[in-house]
Amino acid sequence: MAFWRSPFLDTAAERAADRSLLNNRAHQIMDHNLRLIMENTILKDAKKMMEKLKTDYLLVENIDNHIVGVLTCKILANALMNELDDERSMHS
Questions:
Q1: What are φ and ψ of residue 39, in 5° steps?
Q2: How far apart are CA 37 and CA 68, in angstroms?
Q3: In sequence order, which residues have a C-beta less than 8 Å from that of residue 72 and are 6 or more positions away?
Q4: Spatial distance between the Cα atoms of 75 and 24, rounded to a whole number of angstroms
Q5: Residue ranges with strand state E in the chain
Q6: Which of 18, 28, 52, 83 has a CA 20 to 30 Å removed from the CA of 46?
């Protein structure tokens, strides 16, 4: 997890905050506001929701209220590009 590791760890510039972050539990730093969409949500609506909520992901929920996956900006962008390519090929 180099991404979360402070560059100051194990150096003369290390601060207590750098070391304490490593000792936190997941629930102490996680986002408690779940951003949910239903699995049958139209992609364009999911995109609008991501923009409105200013988030990079949405958790996908089924009819039984179980999380079945996650929709990220990258996944959404690829899906929208595929949809656009399909529309273009139909008009060609």
A1: -65, -15
A2: 11
A3: 56, 57
A4: 30
A5: 36-38, 57-61, 67-72
A6: 28
The alpha carbon torsion through 66, 73, 53, 84 (nearest 10 deg) reads -100
Q: How far apart are CA 58 and CA 31, in angstroms?
A: 12
Q: How far does CA 89 lie from the centroid of its chain?
A: 30
Q: How many CA atoms lie within 13 A of 6 on its CB side?
A: 16
Could you give the CA distance from residue 68 to residue 65 in angstroms, rounded to a whole number?
9
pLDDT digits (tens, 9 = 90+) for 18-68: 777 777 787 887 788 889 999 999 989 999 999 999 999 999 999 999 999
Backbone angles phi, psi at 47, to 5 degrees: -60, -45
CB 72 within 8 A of CB 56: yes
